[in-house]
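#onboarding

Welcome to the new folks! Below is a worked example of what a typical request in this channel looks like: someone posts a single protein sequence, and someone else replies with the predicted structure as tokens. Don't worry about understanding the tokens yet, we'll cover that in week two.

Example request:
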Amino acid sequence: MLMIALLLAVMVLVLRLFYLQIIKGQEFRRLSLNNSIRLQNIDPPRGFIYDRHGTLLVDNRPSFDLFVSLKDARPLAETLARLSPHTGLTVEDLTQRVQSVPRKSAFKPVLIERDIGRDALATVESHRYDLPGIDVQIRRLRNYIFPNFAAHLLGYIGEINTKELALHENTDLRMGDQIGKFGVEKSLEQYLRGERGGRQVEVNANGQVVRVLHTVYARSGHSVYLTIDRALQEKAEELLTGEAGAVVAVDPQNGEILALASNPSFDQNDFVTGITTEKWRALIENPDRPLNNKAIQGEYPPASTYKIIASLAALQEKVITPEETIFCPGYHRFGNRTYRCWRRGGHGKVDLNQAIARSCDVYFYQVGQRLGIDRLAFYARSAGLGKRTGIALGHESRGLVPTAAWKKRKTGIAWQEGETLSVAIGQGFNLATPLQMAMFTAAVANDGKRYQPLLVKKIAKAGEQPSAARPPKLIGRLPVTDINLALVQKGMWEVVQGEKGTARIARLKQIDISGKTGTAQVVSLDKFEENEEAKDERRFKDHAWFIAYAPSEAPRIAIAIIVEHGEHGSSAAGPIAREMVRTYLGPEADAQVSARTEKPAPAEDASAAGGRGGHG
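Example response:
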């Protein structure tokens, strides 16, 4: 019996040894190694972002993140109690964060607190031998050097979610990583992200690193040089202070974006470590929509800036001649309705040049009546309206170019001829973004060439020189002759430089500016006048537009400005354009002295121009 008992005992020991060494051997081998050798992740430094002159706009800063290894922090309760005074977190908070992690991750460090700051770092490090299993890891956080600066353009980063992780399944991204969520940070994610690294380290019984065995260094993301000019962008944002709206400035010779500002703005740094509930609620509940990039997402009736398109269409289709005059008594009757001019007393007899300069509605009512909606739509689309520009930013709006077929399809109601009159002055169903209007203005300024907006000037790999500047992308031409374009350019010169122009307030002494004002109705004039209370409410006031380019003879900058509820393009948006030109041209503007009082007329009459489709 004793022998049998002894044999059974030996068999139990053998079976137990077999279970521990053979069946569970792989797992215990891993656990044993984890007591001494561990792998640590090295996040890649994100690429820097510069302006066109090499001014640094976005870099990275060190962040000190507090972790605990549950296997090493024994006894856990005592370790957390000793840690609490050094972090500002209560023992209950620390315990709750630790308990949220599954026990199977005992060897995987658990994040307790992000970005604890240098003071907390110093305190924890000075007591590290009393805090087994507690570790501080250094990583790089995105740093937007100028808070609120170009927020809608640069964008921001945030922690990746499961949906985004699925979209990047072929990359080395993992939960907890940060990626671009908006703006350039998102659209250029593949260049800015970099490649992950890691290190193999030996730790002691307390989980503290004794030595580094092997390191695979992370590779930094590419540096991106944007086309924007920091000084001009700052000026645009300064000029929009206290207003809701957008400013877009473009180089008309190549389509490069010089400034793209939307106001109100936000601090991108708030999103880096996770925005608070209070700040997020303040952003989404703000009626001026600070998270909306008004430059590319805001859709507004283009108002009288659309008259430039109507002028080009009328000249090209030969429904008017430059010399023909139309009498403006202050209104235009069509059918059983009266369409008013913005000037109640009327403008009297006006030709094309005067109609553009003085923004006569009655003149363009009749232009629209002669053209019809579909011919107007053709030239509007040819000018880039009603479709995305292709800028390297997400969530761009298309705007709207109405046609008879569009209305029938959307509403089931036939197009009414009277609606064409409203479209001809930029009202009605018309919608455009400030970026679309800036690119169109640039095309007018450069004699008809349409460029795709260019936002990225150069891209450089880490430690290497930037690549050659990206070439401009010509996507078409305005379908008008050079003669007709010159006639419209003359009218735009008169808007600012002429004695009766609507934007005389935008003049500079040393340089000529050409432009066009616009006032977009938020509610109809009749309804506005019927509602006495609405007259005092800002949200019912008209939007103010202004498009411009300068210098008139050799354009270097084209601008589109929208001031929401600014009422008048001349007074609200005109001065912004003037200061933008002054800022960008600077000494060049001071060196150019213009003694002209009249812009020269084109060499021949527009009546010699061809029909639709020609471009001279």
